[in-house]
Amino acid sequence: MKYHLAVVEGPHDASFFGVLLRELGFDKVEAVADVDPFWGGLIPRVFPTGNRLEHVVRYPDMYTRSGADARSVAVSVAGGDSRLLSELRAALEILDVTLMSGVCIVADADDQNAPHRFAQLLGGLTALNTSHGPGGKEGGAAGVPGFPLALPSAAGHIAAGLPKVGIYVLPDNAQPGTLDDILVACAASSLPSLHGPAIALVAAVNSNGTAGDPVLKPLRKPSGPLKATAGIIGNLLYPGSATSASVERGPWLQSATGHEIGLSSLRSFIASWLA
Predict the structure, then answer these.
(1) Which of 3, 54, 248, 262 counts the most CB atoms within 10 A of its CB?
(2) Is the previous residue joined to 171 through a cis bond, with omega within 30 degrees of 0?
(3) pLDDT confidence of residue 137
(4) pTM as predicted
(5) What is the mean pLDDT of residues 133-139?
């Protein structure tokens, strides 16, 4: 069995990563008893796990592929862009890094360009190799020996080594944006009856609002319209469900052409990371 760890920003990032893993023959692990013992330390045994009274017990999504090229993948949700490196560090401090075949981070570019976001994350990985942590908000213990992580040369590239290491910056390692860029583009291909009305609704709400309306401030952020559009489509598919559940269960990719922004490059990244 070969072991791979992916750290992503949010729950719907994890769901989409899982959808692409299932395209490659992976099955999601549904029972604690079926979790490979290698990942046992990542399953919380006490709740709450910290000082905050969270409503949800957080643990990685697990996927396995059996056969001659057996693989086990854990997809860990950091809970935000500022926690990607600390989540990775915490997992690697529990796991035996020398037994892992792959590690990757999947992050949103947001309103930055992808090379800038990649440089930030690469700096964090470099710090992990030095002292188990970059310090600051990301934490880390100065003077503690670091991890043996290879450093990728650019966003979307995989650095050879044990483990292989990659950083993917959504949507396509080039442009600003998030996973929602990919989702909405896929919905245009696979869910046209929902895509058009959702786009129109978001545009109408935005145009009908007054300038400076605080209620519309989140919508008017650079990624706001696409996030809202993806959320609307997800709720039309499965009313009352979170976007992550809709992404996991819904037909977002059933008629995708592969030419949607970021889809082909993310598929290629995951395949190379697992190869």
Answers:
(1) 262
(2) yes
(3) 41
(4) 0.91
(5) 46
